[in-house]
């Protein structure tokens, strides 16, 4: 059984860096450390500029800093891709679109599993 992921790992990376919340707040262009606290505890979701700032500060990709959120979004996009593939069963679709949708899935066996699962739920 895998451990549940946190929505973000901002506190982990801040602690590793040795920076205080106030210092990170200054780097983010704010003087208020409570904003950083709210981001770390997932009480507040940072805007895109702040996400990129965190990426710059810690030299860690946003998908890793916000791993839990990233995996939730990835799962939802995969589910929507399955729906789209099913919608395309009855209409001609350019190959580049099909290739793009298949590229969302890193593993073709995983894609087949998802397709089967979708078929069961649609029945």
Q: Care to describe what's here?
A:
α2 (21-27) crosses α3. This protein folds into 2 domains: 10-63, 434 Repressor (Amino-terminal Domain) (Orthogonal Bundle), CATH 1.10.260; 70-122. By secondary structure, it is mainly α. It has helices spanning 10-17, 21-27, 33-40, 48-58, 62-65, 67-87, 95-103, 108-122.
Fill in the keyword field for this structure.
123 residues; mainly alpha; 434 Repressor (Amino-terminal Domain); 2 domains; 8 helices; elongated
Shape descriptor reads elongated
| Largest sheet report | none
Distance from N terminus to C terminus (CA atoms, Å) equals 29 Å
| Overall helicity | 55-70%
CATH class division of the largest domain: Mainly Alpha
- Fourth CATH level, the homologous superfamily of the largest domain: lambda repressor-like DNA-binding domains
User: What is the SS-derived class?
Assistant: mainly alpha
| Radius of gyration over all CA atoms, rounded | 19 Å
CATH architecture of the largest domain: Orthogonal Bundle
Residue share in β-strands: under 5%
Work out the number of β strands.
Answer: 0
Helix-strand pattern: HHHHHHHH
Mean pLDDT across residues: 88
Number of domains: 2
The CATH topology of the largest domain turns out to be 434 Repressor (Amino-terminal Domain)
Number of helices: 8
Low-confidence stretches: none
Question: Topology of this structure?
Answer:
Layout: H1 10-17, H2 21-27, H3 33-40, H4 48-58, H5 62-65, H6 67-87, H7 95-103, H8 108-122
Describe the structure in brief:
This protein is mainly α.
